[in-house]
Structure formats: C-alpha cells, structure tokens
Amino acid sequence: MTKGPEVAGDDGLLQELRVLAGKVDPIPSDTVFAARSAFAFRRIDAELAELSEDSLAAMRAGEAGEEETERILTFTVGERSIEMEAMAEANGWRLVGQLVPPTQGHVTVRSGSGDHVDEFDTDSLGRFANSVAAGGVSLTVTWADGRKADTQWVVL
Amino acid sequence: MDEGSDLAALVKQAGDGDQEAWDDLVARFNGLVWSIARGHRLRQADAGDVVQTTWLRLVEHLDRIRDPERVGAWLATTARNESLAVIRRSSRTQPTEDTWLEVIDPNAPDLDATLISTERERALWQAIAMIGERCQRLLRVMMSDPVPSYQEVSAALDLPIGSIGPTRQRCMESLRKILPSVGINPS
C-alpha cells in the first residue's frame, strides 16, 4: 500500500522531530550506564520473590502525601515470604524485615546501582534490620535448606 | 534473519549471561523507554528511574518472557506501567518544568554553542507544546530512535494497533495547522 503525499510528508516532518529530540532531549549518560548495569542483578541460581503487597500501591492515586515516611512491602516466593517495613531516615531508609515462616536465613542487600552491598545473617527467628540510601533495593535471601531467592527490585 | 529472531536470540543470550547481548538490547530499546517516560511528562530524574526500573524488570524476567521476538513491546508496556506508577506516587501536582516540552526555551538567546537551536527548531518545539496532550505523548513516543514499530507504540500508549496510523495522521495534521502561527511555512 503506497502512502499518500500527506503521509509521506508526515514521515519527513516526524524524522525531523526525531533528530531534534535526539539532540535536545537525549538520554543522560548516567541513565544509559544504569540500564547496562541492570544486568548485574541477573539472578543466578535464585528464584524471583515477587512483590505481593505494597502499602504504597494500595493507596489510591493522589492519596500519597508529599513524602511517604513508611512503606510496607511483602515479597513472595512459593510458600515463603519476606516482609519488610521501610522507614524514612535522614539519608535514606531503615529496613526492618522478617522472613516468613520465621527461620534463620542469610541476607544480601543490594542498593544504588547494585554497587552497594550489605551481607548478614538474620536472627534465629528470621528478623533483620539494615539501612539503605534512597533509591532502589533488592534482597537476596538464602535459607538454611539452600533455597535462594532475589526480591524484585523496588525503588524506595 | 528478521529482527524478531535477532531479538529472540539476544534475549536468550542475555539470559545465558552474555553482557554484550544485554548491551545490544539496551542500545536498541533505551531510546524507546526514555521516550515513553518523557512522553508521560516525567522530569529527567523520574524518567531516569523509569528507565532503570524497566531494565531491571527485564533482567528479572529474562528467563520467562513468552514472546522474546516482541521484547520491544514488552519493554514498552513495562515503561508505560512504571511511568504511571511514578505519576501515582508523586504529590498532587505534576511539575511543569524539566519536562521534555521545556527543553527548548523559546526566549533563550543562542548562548550555548553546542546546543544552538535554529529558529525552525524552536518554532517546531513551540508548536508541539500547543497541540493536545495525547498527541504530544504519541509524537514523543514516535520520535524515539530507532523508529518504533506500531506494536511498540501500541504497547507504549495502550492504544489498539489499528488506531495508531489514523491517530498519527490526525496529530501530525494538528501540528501542521499550528506551524504557520509559529512562523513556519508548511513545506
């Protein structure tokens, strides 16, 4: 199907706009870097613990205040879950978490562009606490029976 | 080999741990993801977050994408959802500076030698700011590089594929009608 002259003219004008957008509204280089660096979060021998509950998502649009100071998240993998309460601090967030069922596990917290890593064991009841800067966060949990899961990346 | 099977191969290779394949996917679709975020009138920082989150979603789902040949549309849908999530999360009013429409200041003198806007460029951008919001979003998405497929545009805007062509034509017509008022003679 051949295009009429008007549509062909549209193509030309749109291409002109495309070139212009590339010049005046390009992707910032640090955003390109972040996109490439996302590959570092590839799961290796770990399942994905998806976000099953989020207090922020449960709010209707417009209900969220200027800044939310508390957020409750639950990640689920099979019959296990990781519950987390995030409380705003001066430079980021304080995470207080609980593995469900309550058993001990090993936790790795990745934040920033994945370059900031904290690693620790929970207590015997699966509880833990950690501080992270504002931005994205993902936890890797390894249980005593060897099962391993990465929580989906969430921006706090 | 058509692009669909190229993309499916890249998705598989990335899933097997190939960083280069991943970088190829980023090079191919980052423009689209950015355009979708900016098209939703997000400021640069928020659009950057959408880009990062969208790629993180892909990394999480590399092993479970049903149609890897259509990873472009998958990314477009994800970018759209993340953009809407940002809008929901932010406070009541949306900023009116630092959106993509404000990047060219029609009143600024040509002080920056590396970003000199010709009169025509300024006028074009001014004209876009005067059309309807839905057309603005459509055009910003269609301005992404490389040229997005109608499937990707459909996913980006949640519009039926069959309506993209006619909507594009209507929006371009709206734009053309405004051009004389900003000093551009229709060519």
Rg calc of chain A:
21 Å
Multimeric state: heterodimer
* Strand count of chain A: 10
Main β-sheet description of chain B: none
Based on the model shown, name its key terms.
heterodimer, A: about 160 residues, alpha+beta, ten-stranded mixed β-sheet, 10 strands, about 45% strand, B: about 190 residues, mainly alpha, globular
Quick overview:
The complex is a heterodimer of chains A (about 160) and B (about 190). Chain A is of the alpha+beta class and about 160 residues long.
Q: Layout of helices and strands, plus pairs?
A:
The complex is a heterodimer of chains A (156) and B (187).
Chain A: H1 5-24, H2 29-37, E1 47-54, H3 55-58, E2 70-77, E3 80-88, E4 92-100, E5 105-111, E6 116-121, E7 127-133, E8 136-143, E9 148-151, E10 154-155
Parallel strand pairs in A: 1-9
Antiparallel strand pairs in A: 1-2, 2-3, 3-4, 4-7, 5-6, 5-8, 8-9, 8-10
Chain B: H1 3-15, H2 19-39, H3 44-61, H4 71-89, H5 119-128, H6 133-142, H7 150-157, H8 161-178
Give your account of this protein's structure.
The complex is a heterodimer of chains A (156) and B (187). In chain A, 21% of the residues lie in helices and 44% in strands. Chain A contains three helices and ten strands; from the N terminus they run H-H-E-H-E-E-E-E-E-E-E-E-E. Chain A has helices at residues 5-24, 29-37, 55-58, and strands spanning 47-54, 70-77, 80-88, 92-100, 105-111, 116-121, 127-133, 136-143, 148-151, 154-155. In chain A, strands 1, 2, 3, 4, 5, 6, 7, 8, 9 and 10 form a ten-stranded mixed beta sheet that branches. In chain A, strand 2 and strand 3 form a beta hairpin. Chain B has 187 residues and is mainly α. Chain B contains eight helices and no strands. Chains A and B meet through helix 1 and helix 2 of A and helix 2, helix 3, helix 4, helix 5 and helix 6 of B.
